Amino acid sequence: MSVAAKGAPLLSRVVGYSVAIANNAGNIIRDIMKKGELGIVEKESAQDLQTEADRAAQRSIITALQKYFPKSTIIGEEGEEEVKDLSGQVFDPTADSSVSGITCPSHLTSVAEEELVIWVDPLDGTAEYTQAHECRISGHLGVCKTLGVSCESLLDHVTVLIGIASGGKAVGGVIHQPYYNYQNPGSKLGRTIWGIVGGSVGGMPLTAPPDGKLIVTTTRSHSSSTVNDAIAALSPTEVLRVGGAGHKVMMLLEGKAHVYVFASPGCKKWDTCAPQAVLEAAGGVLSDIQGKVIPYHASAPHRNSTGVLASAAGQDHQAFLTKIPQHVKDNLKA
Ligand SMILES: O=P(O)(O)O[C@H]1[C@H](O)[C@@H](O)[C@H](OP(=O)(O)O)[C@@H](O)[C@H]1O
Ligand SMILES: [Mg+2]
Ligand SMILES: [Mg+2]
Ligand SMILES: [Mg+2]
């Protein structure tokens, strides 16, 4: 059923419109990088930056969601003030009928707008976005001398996250990756995956990670002894250190990693709500490092102070949890 269809469940419409809204935010993010005026400001620290792309993407996402779902509660990473200066333009998602096949499980078909809490991360991977920009203005080509990876590849860590919660649970989500396909100049950039837990998932093919290996994906910029102890306890065959909470979960969905381990209080509800919903729609699991469900009520603390553990579909999440050392779990108390 098309999301525009009158009888479509509200949750299906929110997911369907959010795909178009996230794709539009991806255009804004790419345009600002192209113009090269990022307007970088520090938030809590020099490691916690915000760019004009974060602000403009958030304005476009939240004003559109507010217009079409005014009774829902919308929480964006970049706070209230970043939404105020409206240029009067509100993106219209209803014209985009590219999304089809969204199915909603019976227990979610009657969810009311007032029950929805929408967690928005307008640009996940700001550090990688700004580093790629720095590389460009300093004329780096190919492998970046300071980073040891190709500067352009950092752009692949950037995602736009729109997560939908009902009853404090992640139930729907959209992950847009604006620089997907950057390796093929001239090709269409960007891809978007969406899902409803217990319903359908779509937008990109799902691939299981390889047998006979255990590939862990984790932080590239917030390591600690606790983070590394948790990783070592799983005896991985490979560790991929990358940016972006959304990007790490995409790696689980496309078979590049078996598990995402982040034994640190670094990420927030807007980093995990959308990835959790899409991952669980695809058969995976996301919990905190103790194995507890992450709450997404409007009044939930924004910080995920007890870490993140996410397993690809078909992996034994409980077995991973059992291997996490007790001192790691003790270090990450709520
Ligand atoms: O939206 P941003 O601020 O880029 O989100 C951050 C997360 O908050 C942070 O936890 C992630 O840290 P790691 O790279 O160490 O996983 C960062 O990548 C972004 O997702
Ligand atoms: Mg984020
Ligand atoms: Mg962000
Ligand atoms: Mg941020």
Automatic annotation (TrEMBL):
<dbReference type="GO" id="GO:0046872">
    <property type="term" value="F:metal ion binding"/>
</dbReference>
<dbReference type="GO" id="GO:0008441">
    <property type="term" value="F:3'(2'),5'-bisphosphate nucleotidase activity"/>
</dbReference>
<dbReference type="InterPro" id="IPR020583">
    <property type="entry name" value="Inositol_monoP_metal-BS"/>
</dbReference>
<feature type="binding site">
    <location>
        <position position="121"/>
    </location>
    <ligand>
        <name>Mg(2+)</name>
    </ligand>
</feature>
<dbReference type="InterPro" id="IPR000760">
    <property type="entry name" value="Inositol_monophosphatase-like"/>
</dbReference>
<feature type="binding site">
    <location>
        <position position="271"/>
    </location>
    <ligand>
        <name>Mg(2+)</name>
    </ligand>
</feature>
<keyword id="KW-0460">Magnesium</keyword>
<feature type="binding site">
    <location>
        <position position="77"/>
    </location>
    <ligand>
        <name>Mg(2+)</name>
    </ligand>
</feature>
<dbReference type="InterPro" id="IPR050725">
    <property type="entry name" value="CysQ/Inositol_MonoPase"/>
</dbReference>
<keyword id="KW-0378">Hydrolase</keyword>
<keyword id="KW-0479">Metal-binding</keyword>
<comment type="similarity">
    <text>Belongs to the inositol monophosphatase superfamily.</text>
</comment>
<dbReference type="GO" id="GO:0004441">
    <property type="term" value="F:inositol-1,4-bisphosphate 1-phosphatase activity"/>
</dbReference>
<protein>
    <recommendedName>
        <fullName>3'(2'),5'-bisphosphate nucleotidase 1</fullName>
        <ecNumber>3.1.3.57</ecNumber>
        <ecNumber>3.1.3.7</ecNumber>
    </recommendedName>
</protein>
<dbReference type="InterPro" id="IPR020550">
    <property type="entry name" value="Inositol_monophosphatase_CS"/>
</dbReference>
<feature type="binding site">
    <location>
        <position position="123"/>
    </location>
    <ligand>
        <name>Mg(2+)</name>
    </ligand>
</feature>
<dbReference type="GO" id="GO:0046854">
    <property type="term" value="P:phosphatidylinositol phosphate biosynthetic process"/>
</dbReference>
<keyword id="KW-0452">Lithium</keyword>
<feature type="binding site">
    <location>
        <position position="124"/>
    </location>
    <ligand>
        <name>Mg(2+)</name>
    </ligand>
</feature>
<dbReference type="Pfam" id="PF00459">
    <property type="entry name" value="Inositol_P"/>
</dbReference>
